[in-house]
Amino acid sequence: MAPELLDLLHLGRERVIGVYLLETPEGPALFDCGPSTCVGVLRERLEERSLELQDVRHLLLSHIHLDHAGAAGVLVREHPELQVHVSPVGAPHLVDPSRLEQSARRLYGEEFDALWGELAPVPETNVRETDDRVLGLDCFPSPGHASHHISYLDSQGTLYAGDAAGVRIQPSPFVLPPTPPPEFDLAAWESTLDELERRDPQRLALIHFGVAENPQEHLAELRRRLRTWTALVGDGASEEEFGATAAEELGDDAPPYEQAMPLWQSYAGLRRYWDKRREAA
To answer: Does the predicted model carry a pTM greater than 0.90?
Structure first.
């Protein structure tokens, strides 16, 4: 059964943020939920499938970044029976999102509210820390983009990858490595790519954006560009030089990629990665 993708039309643009509707042994579930600014569209997408929010029993989160999980608290407030599955590392930040919000507001400044909206806490009673199996899916750590990132693999070979498999606004073939600060880790991500390839998925369900049916080629391209971009910044490229190089590669496909993962953020994460390595040397 093909993964069912719901386009959340972030800021009115198609193919930037999507989430997935899954059928599980315990009823309908969502993989990621998007930010609070997209709750109205999420509700519309469910209604198009003759569902209400209250019909969704479970929310499976890849990680707690706001474009993936920002609406979790608002959804639980509207639907108090909703069970939210998240990594043990991410769980405390759902229950008390104050530090997460402070960090995000520093990063986004005055754009925070328009981009993401309310960041409400999730009651501890609604939070389920993940293990190696969740609702019939394999669940495993997939750090690199974020230390607390996890992915899910179903019995049909669909990998619900969050950001671990990168950003690819299909039908574009361009695979962008999302490397925002502060947790990007090249070695960890390389190990994650090894693990994804070992599990040999048949397709990749990407939040940004769509289902990739050529997972081996996709992951190889992500690995190549991850190494290239990391080396580019490590060799001293400025933000302007990095952005120009990336924009030239993206060409006409740039606008939705820039909204899903702004190049200035990717540069900032890569720059922080190298600064930390040099401080530790």
So the answer is: yes
